[in-house]
Structure formats: structure tokens, C-alpha cells
Model the fold of this input.
Amino acid sequence: MSVKILCIAGARPNFMKIAPLLRAFSSEPFFEPRLLHTGQHYDDKLSRIFFEDLRIPRPDVELEVGSGSHAAQTAEIMRRFEPVLRDEQPHAVLVVGDVNSTIACALVTAKFQLESPFAWKQGTRRRPVIIHVEAGLRSFDDDMPEEVNRKLTDAISDVLFVSDPAGIAHLRREGVPSDRVFFVGNVMIDTLLSARDRAMQSQVLVELGLAGRAHGLVTLHRPSNVDDPSALREILTTLDSLACELPLVFPIHPRTRGRLQGLGFTLDPHRWILTDPVGYLDFLKLMATARVVLTDSGGVQEETTVLGVPCVTLRENTERPVTMEEGTNILAGTQPSRIREAFTQAMTAPRTGRVPQYWDGQAAVRVRDILLGLFRS
Ligand code: UD1
Ligand code: UDP
Done:
């Protein structure tokens, strides 16, 4: 018997997480991995480019859902995903991260009955096993759509793979049985370590006129920072003052691009290098060579920790505390004085930090081996 695992990806940060998992499953004949792309992200620069950069095989199934409100997008993914489960009859559905595609596919799977039962944990089972990779992260901020997605996905998952030991404690407190939870490390870092040499060949610094010049790197896309015009204006005004000290590269997420247009705020092209979102290899090169990264991204907090590059997080909380406790991350919030303070600290006395446990390039292999044990037994 082989085990058919339907792996779900939909938005930019999912592609870096799914890539090493697909590679690990493909190297083990016991597994039959299939890839489904929900189409939550669909622009070439938020989707196709990662398939090329990370050598991800073409998806077996594409739902092409596109954008919408949370309810409309989540519902549309669910509506289109159910018939796929009927056709594919997978033993397991694997979701990563905390985007709308994650909870939508997990929720449909939780109520889906397969045509034939299969052996699972000393018994038989009629529903596909739900596997959540990057389980247990908590910001304790229910205003974040991702926090809702994380908690709900974890509550209905059968196998939960954790990247940070704090996640084990969060899941225990929420009543998740401990035999479902496995600490495996960080699959996003598997991708970083395997792509690092290729990324260093990127010509992005030359293309952006930055060869031989220091730069900082900015990303912003959290609704709490960009959807409210006054919050966005205040953050950009502060960053603009920092750009006098260090040119800032800003690959602009489409959510943010839309908000900037209505803001009437111009970023001086002498101090800022504004681009569309860039591919993974170019972004990794920009990150690895930056003096400092200023961001509200979740994944970027982790990647800068591994690269040893100072990171100033423009949020009031983080679901990734290990990047502050052990890594290079400073949680600055969004108040101008705190951002300036954190920037100065990052520029003058950067913390070297250390790489958290199991962020070693082997997380996906651990996931595969644990699943092999669970399905074989
Ligand atoms: C989503 C995730 C967020 C993740 C981010 C990664 C949820 C709730 N949010 O946020 O956790 O950090 O992706 O980048 O799942 N758009 C385009 N082209 C695209 C996709 C989106 O122009 O290919 C525009 C649309 O106007 C859309 C907006 O961006 O309405 C937001 O996209 P959406 O996927 O809803 O949320 P993100 O902000 O990207
Ligand atoms: N990233 C990228 N190009 C960019 C910005 C980010 O390749 O222009 C990568 C980044 O290295 C990380 C991932 O996108 O691997 C993070 O995604 P994002 O910030 O969109 O989502 P989050 O992690 O906040 O959910």
C-alpha cells in the first residue's frame, strides 16, 4: 500500500514550506504526494516565480480561487476543494502555515468521508488524516486573521508538526493530545539552507544599483499596518527618516501597493528603491546582504535569525518568540520612537544570536519519517 498525501499551498509563504516536504515525500516510495494550489495568490511574482526558484513541480490540481473577503475566499476554497477530495480520495491532507487556504482545506477534510476506510493507529479510519506543519504558533492577538486560522487548524488536525518548542506548550494548554504533537524544526529553513548557494549568485544587487553599497530591506503587508491609512503613513514617515541613513529596498506586496496609491505619500527615490515583490533567490540575496531588515512578515523574522541579520519587527507581538529569545529579532512595534531605537540598536550593536534547535535543513525529512512510522504502524 502507498499513502496518498494531498499537499496544499495557496499563498507566498506556503511555497517555501511545501517545497522541501514534496522533495522528502518524493524520495520515499511509500508516499504518493500530490500538490494542490488553491490560487489564493496568483500574480506571477507571488506564485509562479517560486515554482521556478524552488523547483517545485507543477501542481496536480489548481483551484484558481483568486482574491476576496475572508469569508468569500475561504468559502470559495472550501467549495472547490470538496470535489477534489472526492476525486483524489487521499489518505492524508497536509496543510502548512496559517493562511486562509490552510483552514479552508483543513475544515473540508475534517468532515469528509472517504469511499474506503484505511488502517490508522491500531484502528480504521474513514476521513483523511489532517497534518499541520508549523502548528502551535500563537501571537495571542485575535485581531490577526492568521491567529484565528492557526487555532482552528490546530484544533482539527490529527498530526501537528511544531517548529518552535513554545508551540508544544501552547498546544498542551489548548488540550491537544500530546501523542499528536511532534517537534521537527522549521521547514522554511530547509528551503533557505538548500537555496542559499544559488541565491548568492543572484544579480539583484547589481540590477538595483546596490553593488558595493550598504542597504536595508523593508517588507510590509499586515492589514494592521497597511489597511489603516494613518497607521501606514506613520510607519512610512518613520522609515523615510531612517532611509536618510541607509537606502531602503522595499519590494511592495500588492495589498500594500493598493493602499499606497490612495495615501498620497511619496517615497523619495534617492533614499528608497521600490520594486514589485521579488523572487525567493533575489529576496534571499537582499536579506543576507542587508545591514538591517525592517518587516512585519512572519517568515522573514525566522530567515533573518538563521542568516544572523538584524531584524526589526514592525508589530506589537510575534508568534515566533524564539527569533527574539535566541535569534536576531527585535520586536519594535509601530511607535516611531521605538522603531528608531530598534533601528539604532540593530545598526550599532547587532545581536549575533544563535540558530534555534532543529532549524538545520532536516525538518521535512523528520516530518516524512514520523509519518512513515505512523502510517506503517
Ligand atoms: C495573505 C495571508 C497572510 C500572509 C500573506 C503572505 C491570509 C488571511 N493572509 O495575506 O497571512 O502573510 O498572504 O503574503 O490568508 N493580491 C494581488 N495578487 C495576488 C494576491 C493578492 O494583487 O496574487 C491582492 C488583492 O488585492 C488581494 C490582496 O492582495 O485582495 C490581499 O491578498 P490576500 O491573499 O487576501 O491576503 P494577503 O494580504 O496577501
Ligand atoms: N519573500 C520573497 N519575496 C519578497 C518578499 C518575501 O520571496 O518580495 C519571501 C520571504 O523570504 C519568505 C516569505 O516570502 O520566505 C515570507 O512571506 P510573507 O512575508 O509574504 O508571509 P508571512 O511569512 O508574513 O506569512
